[in-house]
Amino acid sequence: SVRSKTVVGLREQYRPTQIISVPAIFHSFLKSLSDHPQLCAGLRNLTSGGIGISRDLLDQYRDKLGLTISEGYGLTEASPVVTWNGLDRPPKFGSVGPPLSCCKIQIVDEKGMELPSGEEGEVLVRGSNLFSGYLNKPDETRKAFAEGWFKTGDVGWVDEENYLTLTGLKKDMINVFGLKAYPREIERLVMNHPDVVGARIQGEWHPRFGDMVAGDIRLRLGSTVTEKAFLQWCRHHISPYKVPRKVRLRE
After folding, report:
1. DSSP H helical segments within the chain, as ranges?
2. 1: part of which helix (H) or strand (E)?
3. Which class for 60: exposed (0-12), middle (13-18), buried (19 or more C-beta within 10 A)?
């Protein structure tokens, strides 16, 4: 395929020693790397983030290619890495690793009280890699912090060695390849379409790509807009990662 040829060409030209990406990309690389095992030589670090990676994909990289994929966790506000199953400590499958040396994490309950290891709550972050606030949005900045800790909106727990395991999202949010897509915001954007009179956006799980944006779109009576035309409009008016990948149109 074109993608496979591109991967092979870039690998042979630049000889990278690391690949940092999301599970869907590692899945697409698997065939190219399997067909050209010489491309694996020199790869010392494979890191995956954004969403959880399947055990099956980890096993295939290890068994077929002799490569280990390490998971990490981060967000834009933390520049962007918070934890990583790095090479200096043994990785733990299912976790996203311990925090980097530049930051700390804390798990709190609904009242903001710190929870002991093993108990699930919201993940808070603080450290030198953290941003100072949202530009020209003092109210949002104030709400995002609690005594110097940034409230990520992610839910998880830490073990006794401080390895973080993520279990869900606290906020009404769709995690698209690690980017935050908010259903209510996308609904407002979709409503700008001249033929749309109602929209309900939600996340749907794709076994290969993880969370994706999907929606039920109600059109004005007599509209002739097709799904293809609607999605084309979305691609011209909405950020790419917020564009619905699956829609159901109805009058």
Report:
1. 2-14, 23-35, 55-60, 138-144, 183-190, 227-237
2. none
3. middle
Judge whether 168 and 232 are in contact, CB under 8 Å.
Answer: no
| Amino acid present at 83 | T
- Indicate the pTM of the whole model: 0.68
Structure tokens at 5: 């040829």
Identity of residue 232: Q
The bridge status of strand 149-158 relative to strand 145-146 is antiparallel
Number of residues in the chain? 251
User: Which of 89-100 are b and which e, b meaning 16 or more Cβ less than 10 Å from the residue's Cβ?
Assistant: eebbeebbbbbb
DSSP state letters, 15-53: --SEEEE-HHHHHHHHHHHHH-GGGGTT--EEEE-SS--
| pLDDT tens over the chain, length 251 residues | 445 567 777 877 888 899 888 888 888 888 888 888 888 888 888 998 877 787 788 889 999 999 989 999 998 899 999 999 986 788 888 789 999 999 999 999 989 999 999 999 999 999 999 999 999 989 989 989 999 999 998 889 999 999 999 887 766 778 887 777 888 888 888 989 999 988 989 988 887 778 889 999 999 888 999 999 999 999 999 989 899 999 999 87
**23-35 and 2-14 helices cross at what angle (nearest 10)?**
80
**The tokens of 150 are what?**
């940034």
Burial bucket for residue 181 (CB in 10 Å: 0-12, 13-18, 19+) = buried
Q: Which residues pair with 199 in a beta bridge?
A: 217
